[in-house]
Structure formats: C-alpha cells, structure tokens
Amino acid sequence: MNNSFRWFLFLLGLLVFSGGIALTINMQHLGIHPWDVLNVAMFDKVGFTVGTWNIIISFLLICICLILDRRYIKVGTFFNAILIGAFVDFYHWTGILPTASNTWLDIVFILLGICIMGFGGGMYNAAGVGSGPRDGFMLSLADKLGAPIGRVRIVTECTVLILGLIIGGPVFIFTFVFTFIQSPIFQATYLKLGAFVMEVEYKQRLKKRKESVS
Question: Which of the chain's termini has less CB crowding within 10 Å, N or C?
C-alpha cells in the first residue's frame, strides 16, 4: 500500500460523501445538515449553485484556519473544498439521484443519504491526507479557545443553522437528528478503514525490512 491507495480512498470517499449530500438536498423538505441549510439558503437568495456555495464557504473557512492554526490544513483539505461542491453539482446536474415524491419513500431516501454521508466521510478521513475545511476550522477554533471539540462543534453548527434559517434555508426534523444518525456510521467506518490502512502499511514495511535484510 502506498500514497496512491490513500488518495484513491480519499477521492472515492469524497465521491460517496457528495452523493449523500446531494441525495439529502433532494429531500430537503424533511430537513438537511446545518451546513447544507446555509448552502441551500445562499443558493435560493443569491444564485450560483449549492456546490458553488459549498466551495466558497470551504475556502473562507480555510482562510480562517490559516490564521488560527494552519497545521490542520493539508493538500487534501483543498481537494476536499473543491471536489465536494463539484461532485454535488455533478449529481444534481445528471439527475441520477431520486427526487422528492412527498411520500414515505422520501424518508427512506433521506435516511439512506445520511448513512451514505457517514460512510463516505469515514472513508475520506481514514485516508489521512487532510481534514475537511469544516473539521479543520472547528479543530483550530477548539485549540485556540482551549475548549472541547464537541462543544465547539455544537456551537458552530447551531450558529450556522441559525444563520441559514434566518436567510431562509430548509430546516425540519431531520436537521436535528442528522448528527445522531451520521456520526456512529462515520466513526465505525473511520475506525475500521483507518485500522485497515495502518495494518496493511505495517505489513508492507515489515516485508520490505525482511527483504532488505535478506
């Protein structure tokens, strides 16, 4: 295993994660993630695309991170900032994902989208090539304030949610249960894939060491 595998896992994770975002946005009348509430609100009020606003906000957060604590910003962070927004727009442009039907199927699809986001997020984070702009921002802020990351995440996402709601973003019941569904899937995927990456790399280093000795 080498860096090419890590990058493959990272890019595949971004593609999967973006598909989950795009699917939940299609079911936005049921409620979406706080950051996407803001993206959709800006799209409705100003224009451009949802993906474009994702990119704009991502780079704004990267700039703040560079001021607060640049150690969380890596090459992968910039790819994350660009590609997630681009992939979300690609999914919406192709129209390959289900759209709202105002039936019980919408609940199934939004739950599926949230699960996909958890899985994809775990994948690209397990690759270890850089935190996402939002995660990097919250980690930097937590370090700067000396506050627990969990508390900083709650305050940040509540602030983003309120801002998106004021602008006119879609907020409903799934907005408030999003994290409770996504986080366990994210954690399980991240831990399992992260352990897999480390185990295989360790075995490869051990193999090279034996070959060099022989």
Answer: C
